[in-house]
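Need tokens for this chain, all 174 residues.
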Amino acid sequence: MSGGRVTRLAVTVCALLVAADVLVTGRLGWPFDIGFVALCIGLALAVHPSGFFRVGVMPPFLLLGVSLLLAVVDRQAVALANDTFVQAVVSGLAHHSGALFAGVVSTLVVLAIRHRVTQVRRGSAGRQMSSYAYANLETSPPPTRVTSAEPEEKSTTVVGSDDVSPPSRTASTI
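Here are the structure tokens for all 174 residues:
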């Protein structure tokens, strides 16, 4: 799914979770928390790779939106009846911080795994191609590596010994 569709789905499902929990228990409790974490995991699994960032930052904004909405509509669902608006929002975030932490961590873990799998799949496809796939064969051959030296040409210098190697000859000394 695209990032926009996943966002609309997240807001809709989150609103249904809030409505169900508040109607049944009168407060926002652990049923919402469990549904919130499951929603976060589902969003991370459903989104197209181009929407990874959007889903990665979505859980805190969802919970903030829920806290703001309930602080306006039904303050007793997230805070005490005599709490101010700001206190209700902060209470809503604080009381559900465990679910927020679990939702963010699980979302990021799922997205990281999906990103890694995507990289491995793309990398293995690239490894199957030969070096000629990247060469410009019309104008130049593919690059090659050539080394020139034979084992007989190696020299060893022992510390404290006289130089026994023959003098070197260059074109200027011949």
